[in-house]
Design a protein that fits this description.
This protein has 674 residues and is an alpha+beta fold.
Length: 674
């Protein structure tokens, strides 16, 4: 039998392993917090009861426990727990509940032998004041106070998973059932995996966590960053860098890492169905020695501070910047990668206040105009981040190219429902705050039969065409206004003549001016729409004028990488724009072939460098069966991979040749919905 040199795996009895005097376990700082809930505890307790009542030969396997020997700056007999924290911690809480139940019995009834056996699992032989499991120091005190029963009246453990699960076990196990549960615990087994010095701990950790409850991306990043460092080095990185990042991003830490990677790589990062953020992080930072880690971690901390201001604009030192950031938040966080870079540069004095505000205004104009004309903003921010890396001028041009024109916006505002209504009306009216204001529909969405626009004819007398034309314009810009809440309550369901008097009392100029209109009908709505549209186009001005509007084109680096060959892939593209040329290429397989052949002629050195580094797709011989194409007499292009691999290769080789910015794809209808 061939044995492994870096991994020692042994099947052991779990309680015997924990009870051994030499067993002491340290949870490293990179581990995620304890997360087991009552449901998991209930399942574990049920399994233990079941095995306790089974045949003496039956055991219960709880999986594998992965650890490595402690580094030089800790006690030699300690094990660093890499995987299994959740299970071991829960077992400790259950044993603690049993131990305390036994100790609570009167002296004449108490089973001191059983109490001693339970104590061997919980505390160190050399020092009964210390638990055998040493959690992350951030929550070690809470864990020890529960397990060692050191809780005082002032301790607040209500929000502790340790105490919640311990209390559950205490409530579920009666004093007369302790021996039964202990019998079941003694039948638990696991595989103890101990890693040697040369084992790849991160790779093994990921493999073990590929099933069950998956770690989240930011937890994997945390582990990846700290694993392999000494305990002292882990503590330094945790305290100096990671803890401030967590404090700055709080519950949005996953979003921070995704937005940071989009910002720095200029690529969209896939989230759904894959560990896209973690994979992108590892690709961005393939090696992290301690000195390099400190440098990068300092940058991560800086950007997390900028991210905190994006999440909480009131933290911005400048009132106008705070206002603009709150405006950006109207549209969600889709543009955070770009905005984070801009605010970071501003905070370091790399750009001044006017440049930052200009960028924030351009972002708002881009997103709002696209919403008005019904075009989404998916997969845009990465290309803007790439442009921002070139220069502020490149960013302005890039935004302008995908910002709908004034003409498109004018038409859309005439007939389309107004998005982000309160925000738009507030900025047009230049009000300081929206507090106390409500959106008012001058012509109501559901008029009563007695409603009148002129005080003469009632709604019931309007023809079907008149009614339909009014309804079509009810949610458009010209029929909407901001009105103080007290006035809005009185205006509800009233006819226009009554509303006019209320509008005249409003302090909002764009609302009080409606009182100058004698009657309210579709003509009045259209006239007001045209007037407010002029203001709209000034407030949300297009960044610049450009000679081409590539609104319908997708940069090649933002093309969607789909695994396999999805239905309809043969007509994924309408065409491809390659450096000013129009290619009738309809699918990724033909795009792959044509790009590599073209670059073999135009940029052979770059193609060779790319292929050598990646191990293909160009080879000097057709070494196996498959679909090949000849580049010349001694070089061959292998065509046998799936669509995701092919598109990734196309993107990579175009970047290598520095042509990616000049290549676009136009998706077909089929390709857009695949």
């Amino acid at each position: 039998m061939v044995s492994a040199t870096n991994i020692d795996a042994t099947a052991v009895n779990t309680v015997a392993w924990l009870s051994a005097a030499e067993t002491t376990i340290v949870v490293p700082v990179y581990q995620r917090q304890y997360r087991w809930d009552i449901g998991g505890c209930e399942q574990l307790l049920g399994d233990i009861r079941s095995v306790a009542d089974s045949d003496a030969r039956h055991t219960h396997f709880i999986g594998s426990i992965l650890s490595t020997d402690a580094d030089d700056d800790t006690d030699d007999d300690e094990l660093i727990l890499i995987d299994g924290q959740q299970r071991i911690t829960t077992l400790m809480l259950l044993v603690a509940a049993l131990h305390h139940a036994v100790l609570a019995q009167p002296a004449g009834v108490r089973d001191d032998t059983l109490a001693g056996q339970l104590a061997k699992v919980l505390v160190r032989a050399t020092d009964p004041r210390q638990t055998k499991l040493r959690p992350h120091r951030a929550w070690a005190q809470v864990f020890e106070s529960v397990v060692l029963d050191r809780r005082t009246e002032g301790d607040d453990l209500r929000d502790s998973r340790f105490y919640d699960n311990y209390a559950f076990f205490r409530s579920q196990v009666r004093a007369d059932e302790v021996a039964r549960i202990w019998r079941g615990l003694q039948k638990l087994e696991h595989v103890a995996i101990t890693l040697g010095a040369d084992a790849n701990a991160q790779q093994i950790f990921e493999s073990l966590n590929s099933t069950g409850e998956p770690l989240r991306d930011h937890e994997l990043i945390h582990n990846y960053v700290l694993m392999g460092l000494s305990h002292a080095e882990q503590s330094e990185i945790e305290d100096v860098y990671w803890a401030p990042i967590e404090q700055n991003t709080s519950e949005q830490i996953a979003g921070f890492w995704r937005h940071y990677l989009v910002m720095t790589t200029g690529r969209e990062v896939t989230v759904a169905g894959e560990r896209g953020v973690y994979d992108a992080f590892r690709q961005r930072f393939p090696r992290l020695d301690l000195a390099t880690l400190r440098t990068h971690a300092a940058e991560w901390r800086q950007y997390s501070a900028a991210y905190r201001v994006l999440l909480e604009p009131t933290r911005a030192p400048d009132a106008e910047i705070a206002r603009q950031l709150s405006y950006v938040n109207t549209f969600g966080r889709g543009m955070y990668p770009l905005v984070m870079r801009a605010y970071h540069d501003y905070s370091l004095g790399m750009i001044d206040t006017s440049i930052l505000i200009e960028t924030l205004e351009h972002v708002q104009a881009l997103v709002l105009r696209r919403a008005v004309v019904g075009v989404n903003t998916d997969r845009l921010v990465a290309r803007l981040c790439r442009a921002r890396q070139e220069s502020q001028e490149s960013l302005a041009r890039a935004i302008a190219r995908i910002t709908p024109s004034d003409e498109r916006v004018r038409v859309a505002l005439k007939y389309s429902d107004l998005p982000h209504t309160a925000y738009v009306l507030g900025r047009i009216a230049n009000v300081g705050t929206l507090a106390g204001l409500e959106v008012e529909h001058v012509f109501p969405l559901a008029p009563a039969d007695a409603w009148s626009g002129d005080g003469i004819r009632e709604w019931a007398e309007y023809t079907d065409d008149e009614q339909n034309s009014h309804r079509a314009l009810a949610a458009t810009l010209g029929n909407l206004a901001l009105l103080e809440q007290s006035l809005a309550d009185r205006a509800a369901d009233e006819s226009f003549p009554e509303k006019r008097a209320l509008y005249a009392q409003s302090s909002v100029g764009t609302t009080s001016s409606i009182a100058d209109t004698a009657a309210w009908a579709t003509a009045a709505i259209a006239e007001r729409t045209a007037r407010l549209t002029d203001v709209f186009l000034r407030v949300w001005a297009r960044a610049a004028t450009v000679g081409i509007d590539d609104d319908g084109l997708t940069p090649i680096l933002d093309a969607v990488r789909r695994r396999g060959w999805p239905r309809g892939w043969e007509r994924e593209f309408e065409y491809v724009e390659y450096r000013g040329e129009h290619w009738e290429v309809y699918d990724v397989k033909h795009l792959f072939n044509r790009v590599f052949k073209r670059l073999w002629a135009d940029a052979r050195e770059d193609v060779s460098s790319f292929s050598t580094r990646r191990g293909g797709p160009i080879y000097e011989a057709q070494a196996w069966n498959g679909h090949w194409d000849a580049l010349d007499e001694t070089h061959f292009l292998y065509m046998g991979w799936d669509s995701k691999y092919m598109l990734t290769a196309v993107q990579g080789v175009l970047e290598e040749a520095d042509f990616a910015a000049e290549v676009f794809v136009k998706y077909s209808y089929i390709g857009a919905v695949m």
